[in-house]
Amino acid sequence: MLDRLWARLFGRRESFDDERVRRAFVDGLTGLPNRHVMGERLREARAAGVTGVAAMIDVDHFKQINDRHGHATGDEVLQAVADRLRAEFGSPAWAARVGGDEFFVLLPGVDMAEARRRIVRCAELLRAPIVCGQHAVENLTMSVGLATFPAPTNDELLKAVDVAMYAAKARGRDGAVVFDDDTRKIVTARRELASIIVELQERNRALRDDARTDALTGLRNRLALDEVLDVVVDGSDPRFAAAAVAFIDIDHFGDYNHLHGDAAGDEALRRVAAAVRGCSRDADLVFRKGGEELVVVLAGAGHEESRVAAERLRACVQALAIDHAGSKTASVMTVTVGVASGGAGGTLRALMIAASDEAMRAKVDHARNRVHAASI
């Protein structure tokens, strides 16, 4: 039966011809038993009454090897590590690849002192240069977690060696740590600290977002607007290879407040802001500049596109049909929109100023509830 499940999961070195079965049992890169086989062999060893020491080995700074030399070199390093583990931990000991740069070793019939000696010897093997094409990786080190075998379950054993391995990393790497209660406390404390740091970072992000959000409308506020105004069109930010800015002013808003009261004015402003945001594209940035003035940065928009977008925003507000008996322009609330587009090298600030000038000029010229465009 499948060569007795490949000689009980690599108990002997016979090969098996069925490549599909081989892939199910063997790590494709290193040729070591994979995680599934590791679990089976641990269960069998525990059932047979085997005692000894288990080790989890992590190659130190492996990501730097990948980043510096490339993944092909990284793969060759892992293959060399696997070969050296085989050389040191031959039968009855055995090694498996857990995943990534982590390896598991079981040393049957040894005590912890002997296990530590063998780990030290293996570490010396690992320091020998590994030649990978034109690269040579030297002085490779490993962090090792050790625990007594057996444990009540595979999961408990793997947690123990994993905790001890991370304790070894916390102590500066290139060493071995035996799992015990002190180790558990150290790693737990570090993980709790890491969790606290993540929580503080999330709170800081939330505070930063709150500081840049207008409390009334939920739009980005003046502080957030100021942070983008110096962006250069077709500069380093790919979002603004082209851009335009729409400046929106609510017509006769002061008269609306006088007639209906500040609470009604706030509600009208919220509705206008929601309409403008809803009629903008996902890529556009919508701000409340202050009072009844809104600004929309139209990412990627050229001159004609910006005119179309500005008209859409104007029409969306008028479609709200908010009664405005105090308006001299229409029976409902309307907006006047100035929009400016420009070529590479100009800033969003320059576009906003040009758009604002267009809107203000329209108010003076009694040309409200329209779009007024400029190109600079």
TrEMBL record:
Residues 50-181, 241-376 form the GGDEF domain. Its EC number is 2.7.7.65. SUPFAM superfamilies: Nucleotide cyclase. Signal peptide: none annotated. Pfam families: GGDEF. It is an enzyme of class 2 (transferase). PROSITE patterns: GGDEF. CDD domains: GGDEF. One of its GO terms (cellular component) is plasma membrane. One of its GO terms (molecular function) is diguanylate cyclase activity. It catalyses: 2 GTP = 3',3'-c-di-GMP + 2 diphosphate. One of its GO terms (biological process) is cell adhesion involved in single-species biofilm formation. PANTHER family: DIGUANYLATE CYCLASE DGCM-RELATED (PTHR45138:SF9), REGULATORY COMPONENTS OF SENSORY TRANSDUCTION SYSTEM (PTHR45138). This is diguanylate cyclase. The lineage of its organism: Bacteria, Pseudomonadati, Pseudomonadota, Betaproteobacteria, Burkholderiales.
